[in-house]
Amino acid sequence: MEILDGKKISEQIKEEIAQEVSAMKERGEKVPHLAAVLVGNDGASLTYVGSKVRSCEKIGFESTLVSLPDTTTEEELLVKIKELNEDASIDGFIVQLPLPKHIDEQKVLMAIDPDKDVDGFHPTNFGKMALELETFIPATPFGILELLKRYNVETSGKNTVVIGRSHIVGRPMSILMSRKGFPGDSTVTLTHSRTKDLKAFTKDADIVITALGSPDFLKADMVKDGVVIIDVGITRVPDETKPKGYRITGDVDFEEVAPKASYITPVPGGVGPMTIAMLLKNTLLARERHNAK
Ligand code: GUN
User: Fold this and answer.
1) Is residue 169 pLDDT above 80, yes or no?
2) What are the pLDDT digits (tens) for 172-187?
3) Which of 67, 91, 158, 263 is the 20 to 30 Å CA partner of 76?
4) Residue numbering of the annotated binding site
5) Which CATH number is 71's domain given?
6) Does ligand 1 come within 6 angstroms of the Cβ of 97?
7) pLDDT at 292
8) Which ranges carry the Tetrahydrofolate dehydrogenase/cyclohydrolase catalytic domain (predicted)?
9) 145 lines ligand 1 (CB under 6 A)
10) pLDDT given for residue 111 in this prediction
11) What per-residue confidence (pLDDT) applies to 160?
12) What is the mean pLDDT of the chain?
């Protein structure tokens, strides 16, 4: 069993990006600039956005945090997005999800200029991804591909089962694993809450990608020997023994499943850190693409 060490690989990727930024500076070029929009004060979102902004600073990017109150109207948010679209100093930006219930998420995502949509959530970018055209691949799926690539995990001709059909992880992951090339060329089954007899699918899978948000859901009797496990779950489970009063738990019962796996991502330290690294990668790509125009 080998651990797919997302923490280590994400550090490598950030180091590679930092070197590229230094080279840009030496050439007298503008460095990448990422903006993040946060509406309201959801605990997890605050943590994620804070960590995105800090990572930008570490690797030499410029960053802007746009923090709006949870009383912000949809119209006000759309005005802010228009400003960011038109601000030539900003290469890419994200609107942290989830948004407060009174705001139409799809409408907001569609207002983002696809050339600045470093989350890859705009229908134009999502469509390009499905058609194997140049685009921004959503950061979490992009991070998973990069992990599989750097550990040289065989995906061609394998049975890949994705659990969960979210727009951010499950759905794009199912498309990406079936694309031509490496990582890809998998035979993909996208399972979800209405799937009957999930175990029949996971037992037959060479690769299982879980994006459910259900702690310790995947058990040893649900997978076969030699399976590759990618755990995208990050649920805060109350735990009084921890300083923060909670611990982060994945979708996979790691203790049980790891001995059967050929490769497995831990939680924390697996997919999570890769997400931020790939958001930074997309921002670098945005800068380079704007330069090339
Ligand atoms: N909420 C959870 N994951 C993400 C992400 O990758 N991007 C944004 N914008 N919001 C999220």
Assistant:
1) yes
2) 999 999 999 999 999 9
3) 91
4) 164-166, 234
5) 3.40.50.10860
6) yes
7) 83
8) 4-119
9) no
10) 98
11) 99
12) 97
Report the length, in residues, of the chain.
Answer: 293
pLDDT for residue 22 is more than 80:
yes
Q: What is the CATH number of the domain that holds 185?
A: 3.40.50.720
Residue 116 alpha carbon to ligand 1 centre in Å: 15
Tell me the residue type at 191. Answer: T
Residue 154 has pLDDT above 80, yes or no: yes
Distance separating alpha carbons of residues 257 and 287, to the nearest angstrom = 41
DSSP 250-291: -SB-HHHHGGGEEEE--SSSSHHHHHHHHHHHHHHHHHHHHH
Report whether residue 46 contacts ligand 1, using a CB cutoff of 6 Å.
Answer: no
**Annotation: binding site for NADP(+):** 164-166, 234
Range of 160's domain? 139-272
Q: Which atom of ligand 1 is nearest to the CA of 45?
A: 1
Is residue 16 in a domain? no
Q: Any idea what DSSP says for residue 80?
A: H
Residues 161 and 246 in one domain: yes
The count of structural domains within the chain is: 2
Model confidence pLDDT, tens digit, residues 244-271: 999 999 999 999 999 999 999 999 999 9
Bridge-based pairing state of the strands 187-191 and 159-163: parallel
Q: Is the CB of 139 under 6 A from ligand 1?
A: yes
Q: Cβ(253)–Cβ(260) under 8 Å?
A: no
Residue 75, in any domain of the structure: yes
Whether 224 and 154 map to the same domain: the answer is yes
Q: Tell whether 108 and 217 lie within a shared domain.
A: no
Closest Cα to atom 1, ligand 1: which residue?
A: 97
Give catalytic residue positions. Answer: 52, 96, 119
Q: What is the three-class DSSP state of 150?
A: helix
